[in-house]
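Chain entry —
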Amino acid sequence: MNNITNQLKLLTNQVFEEAVEFRRSLHMNPELSEHEEKTAAAICSRLDTMGIEYTSGIAGHGISAVIYGQNRHRGVGIRADMDALPITEKADVPFTSHNPGVMHACGHDIHTAILLGTAEVLNSIRVSLPGSVRLFFQPAEETVGGAKQMIDAGCLTEPQINSVIGLHVDTELDSDCIEFIHGSMNAASTEFYVTVKGKSCHGAHPSDGIDALLPACTMVAGLQSIVTRRTDPAESVLITVGKFNSGTKENIISGEAKFSGIIRSLQMHNMTPVKEYIRELCSATARAYGADCDIVFQDSYPSLENDDTLLEWVVESSREILGDSKVFVSRKPSLAADDFSYFCHSSRGIYYNIGARRPGDKNPYPIHSNLFNPDEECIRTGILTETAAVLKIMKEECKTW
């Protein structure tokens, strides 16, 4: 084990308890997307204590901080999201949410605590850093995509950031393990909203109206034929309808039906044709039943593409700091979406999963569960691997600075 690895482990151990304490404070005071005011204030307070420069109020409540190294104009970025979810917590922990109906059920409190711990470690060795480090405390991952707004605000410049690191908790892995995925790690997504318009009438005289419910139901069932018959079966495409509303009373033919859902694909080139297939199927079905329909698409996030070179570097640095047996490399992606993808398309990105499962726990609760209760040892794993990754990427990139 080399001296740098020993030093990083020692420094991480020194900041670990403080990072856990901060995580618990955030967990007790979660805030929804675009409302992260107190969360941002708490982060700024910690940055003030560390003497790290920052700009707040970016993209709402986002914070961009910088640790200056030997090169003040070039560096590496690290991102953590910090918003919570509209979920009522049921986990039996002493630091349960104090905000009714709001919970950190996706681990963003952990991501933020890890980034602050990483910042403290890197700040303590800043004079030896060949470049600078940009810290992105990002709002609104769960809604409008705060990553894009922070990028549009110029957060990848001064210092110039060409590579950005991000991570996410995963309860399918033990808390001392991490996992990397080659290439497309998360899917692109587009939400769609369909309104079917008919003519309401008495249920005893259906021929006097146009039932909007019947074509809407046919559309929902028919959408799956797009996946099974109109897209390449070797590529990953999902169409999910998650919401459906129609009718006002049992004996009234419904004059309007609304449903909405989301398209997901690992390949960006599938998104445009799938949207056209949906429009074609819904419009034709409505006409066949004598109804009309309106369809609105709202593009969400692009696909999250890990850079091959960054993956190679960070796998190497992670194995050095954790050991070979704790680092997994997979080619099995997830069709979940994450706005870290914007960093991947605006620079080079490397995103990986850190385990959050207690060793021996055979039935951990997943993210977005009201019983989500990760092992806080994952904070140590996150700090270790982020700091090691920054040093490795800087070592390689500074050769061309």
Summary: The CA atoms of residues 134 and 272 lie 35 Å apart. The chain has a mean pLDDT of 97. The two ends are 29 Å apart (CA to CA). Residues 3-28 form the longest helix (26 residues).
